[in-house]
User: What shape does this take?
Amino acid sequence: MSYVYILLSEIDHKYYIGSTDNLKRRFEEHNRGQTKSTKFRKPFKLVFYKEFKNIQIAKKIEAKLKSFKNRQIIDRIIADKIIRLRS
Assistant: This one.
C-alpha cells in the first residue's frame, strides 16, 4: 500500500504534502530532519493521510493536492478526511 499525507509544521504552520510507501518511516524522517525540503520546519504533526493501491496513484493525488494554491481547499480536505477523485 501507498499513502498521500499532509503534515503541519509546528514552526511556520504551513503544510507539507507528500507520498510514500511507508508512512511511519517517512513521518519519522521528516521529524528527524532527514528530508532536505522540510528539515528547517520541524517538528511536524500528521494531519491527514489516505491509503492507495500503489505509489503511482498516490503520486498522482499528491501532484493534484500540490496544485491547489488555496490553503482553504487543503483545510477542507483535512476537515472532511476525504479526497474526491475527479478526472
Remarks:
- The helical segments are 23-32, 55-67, 71-80.
- The chain has one domain: 2-80.
- The two ends are 22 Å apart (CA to CA).
- The domain at 2-80 is CATH 3.40.1440.10 (GIY-YIG endonuclease).
